[in-house]
Amino acid sequence: MNLANWPFLPFIGFLGHLAGAIACTIGVWWIATHGDRNRHDRTATIAAGLTTGIWCLLSAAFGPDAIIAEVAEIARNLAWIFLLFRLFGNDGRDESVRQVRPVVVALLFVECLQPVLLLVEHRFAITPQIDALTNQISAALRMLVAIGGLMLLHNLYAGAAKPSRELLRWSTIAVGGFWAFDLNFFTVGYLGGQHPALLEAIRGLAAAVLILPLALGSSATAAGLQFRPSRAVAFQTLSLLLIGAYLLLMMLMTRSIAMLGGDFARFTQVGFVVAATIATILWLPSPRLRGWLKVTATKHLFQHRYDYRQEWLRFNATIGRGGANGESFEERAIRAIADITDSPAGLLLAPNEEVELELVEHWKWPSLEVPAVAACAALSSMLEEQEFILDLDEARARLGEEDQIPFVPAWMLDEPRAWAVVPLLHFERLVGAIVLARPAAHRSLDWEDFDLLRVVGRQLASYLAERAGQQALMEASRFDEFNRRIAFVMHDIKNLASQVTLLARNAEKHADNPEFRADMLVTLRNSGDKLNALLKRLGRYGAGQVDAREPLALDAFARDLVAKYARQHSVTVAQANPVLVLANREALDQSLTHLLQNAIDASADGAPIYVNVVSDGTLGCLEIIDSGGGMSPQFIRNGLFKPFVSSKDGGFGIGAFEARELIRAMGGRLKVESREGIGTRFMACLPLEAAAQIQASGTNNDSEVA
């Protein structure tokens, strides 16, 4: 539909110009009564507003094409050029910047050519060709004036000092909007051969809108007001501008193709529209484009990259959501930091007892293969001591150089998506580290990223430490309940054992039947032994029973352990090097029996289980390897060695914890490696006898010297 033939368009133009006249009248009154009387541009501002109001009124009364309205438009433009010149006087630069005056004089001269063209149009344009030529020349001159005005405005604002910019902000917005609208209006008219009907109808509304910042800029108090759109508004505005520019380009291309004429041009036009539409559907929703738009808007529209208030509110909302969407606390912790940098995925690492970093949880990054020991203790120490945010791109760039960042694990460098490592410090102690994936819009980390990530990392570390403290309190509470119950059980069994033992003694003295006495004695003594053994076993929660360590052949012990299950499952000693360790045989048997039984329970019928005995020169290790369902890193970290947490139906959840504590009490350590769907390997490592003797002799020598 042709807008020029729209019947309501003249009425809209009338209302728009009338609204502009009213708004300009109110604006001039405001400037005259509330404006700063000491400003150099006060008179020019009133003149610009007054002439604009008169032009709007005459356009509403007689139409925008009337001679009197066109003369008023020339007066209006001269007033706005004069206002632009007077704005330079607010900081004295109308005297210091001499090159401004010739440009202003040139603009005034060009605008003063409009009456001549107006006279030619109404008196001497006897043919349509002369009339069209006159209109084209007029539009071209108006375009030159608008371009010159925008250039002067840019020179004014770019060269102004910061206090002057505060004073000029609103006035330059009004002047810039005025010349930008005129440039667009006359450019479209020049290219189309006639004034655009819709833009001509809303010229009065544009004047009504632009008078508002002009009035605000006239007051010293109001000039301090600042328009600070939120980042969401800026991002959405930039997105709309980009979409609009794309649609405009597509329209121009289709119009250009249509000018070729013929069936081929029509076919090409339709094909271009289809291809452009498909490209739009695929391109606009992409994360890369959204990331680029956000980075661009932040870089050019805001002083800081981040809206700190918004980021803090979002961080606390993510942490305190309570797992409503099925995410664990660890997953929410990763996402809380990843959302700040628009990272699409992340990992949470935490130090183990040897201060090595291990995987605790991943968020949207399940495909990444992370070793059992994700990072060595040296990297953990560096993150803790220096609160160092590791830029992995910088680490990759320094490979092979003398100042390369040390201790960075190979799997981080080999994974191209790995972008940064953020330490989580609580009271100068490392409680974890977040590995962030690279954002969709590629960029480098800068000082603002580092500062914000450090602050948020400390806050997140406090939450993790608080959660660990709460878990420790719950565990202690469970232990307390367990100890109270065990105390009653031990008391009852102890009494029963005493009674049975006393009965056995009395039976030895008073029984008349020798055969009955013999059988009774055997039965009672066996019962007493079993009860005493049960009491002894119930008391094995601590290091008391493993104080007496002695040399133990670990290879022979492994064969004896496997022999117990020869008829129950396929358990094989695959490797048994001669290894002599210091251990308590009974405690070691108890701990490894439990681990081997777990391996059998996790394996399918007939699936082999292998036992290896190896040594690294300091420790002797007995490995139990199964091909069962495996365990997730989260369960290993948070559930395997937690008392009263069991994956078995009806399990008490204390066996793995007891096994680890018994091995620790003997000076060793229990390690575990597992992959879901592949299997598990437990490694019980104990000090070698020779190494222990060397260490003991060194300690004795030090004592003698002291």
Automatic annotation (TrEMBL):
<feature type="transmembrane region" description="Helical">
    <location>
        <begin position="68"/>
        <end position="88"/>
    </location>
</feature>
<keyword id="KW-1133">Transmembrane helix</keyword>
<keyword id="KW-0597">Phosphoprotein</keyword>
<feature type="transmembrane region" description="Helical">
    <location>
        <begin position="237"/>
        <end position="258"/>
    </location>
</feature>
<feature type="transmembrane region" description="Helical">
    <location>
        <begin position="140"/>
        <end position="158"/>
    </location>
</feature>
<feature type="transmembrane region" description="Helical">
    <location>
        <begin position="6"/>
        <end position="32"/>
    </location>
</feature>
<dbReference type="InterPro" id="IPR005467">
    <property type="entry name" value="His_kinase_dom"/>
</dbReference>
<dbReference type="InterPro" id="IPR014265">
    <property type="entry name" value="XrtA/PrsK"/>
</dbReference>
<feature type="transmembrane region" description="Helical">
    <location>
        <begin position="204"/>
        <end position="225"/>
    </location>
</feature>
<feature type="transmembrane region" description="Helical">
    <location>
        <begin position="170"/>
        <end position="192"/>
    </location>
</feature>
<dbReference type="InterPro" id="IPR029016">
    <property type="entry name" value="GAF-like_dom_sf"/>
</dbReference>
<keyword id="KW-0812">Transmembrane</keyword>
<keyword id="KW-0418">Kinase</keyword>
<dbReference type="GO" id="GO:0004673">
    <property type="term" value="F:protein histidine kinase activity"/>
</dbReference>
<feature type="domain" description="Histidine kinase">
    <location>
        <begin position="488"/>
        <end position="690"/>
    </location>
</feature>
<dbReference type="Pfam" id="PF02518">
    <property type="entry name" value="HATPase_c"/>
</dbReference>
<keyword id="KW-0808">Transferase</keyword>
<protein>
    <recommendedName>
        <fullName>histidine kinase</fullName>
        <ecNumber>2.7.13.3</ecNumber>
    </recommendedName>
</protein>
<feature type="transmembrane region" description="Helical">
    <location>
        <begin position="44"/>
        <end position="62"/>
    </location>
</feature>
<dbReference type="InterPro" id="IPR036890">
    <property type="entry name" value="HATPase_C_sf"/>
</dbReference>
<dbReference type="InterPro" id="IPR004358">
    <property type="entry name" value="Sig_transdc_His_kin-like_C"/>
</dbReference>
<feature type="transmembrane region" description="Helical">
    <location>
        <begin position="264"/>
        <end position="284"/>
    </location>
</feature>
<keyword id="KW-0472">Membrane</keyword>
<dbReference type="InterPro" id="IPR003594">
    <property type="entry name" value="HATPase_dom"/>
</dbReference>
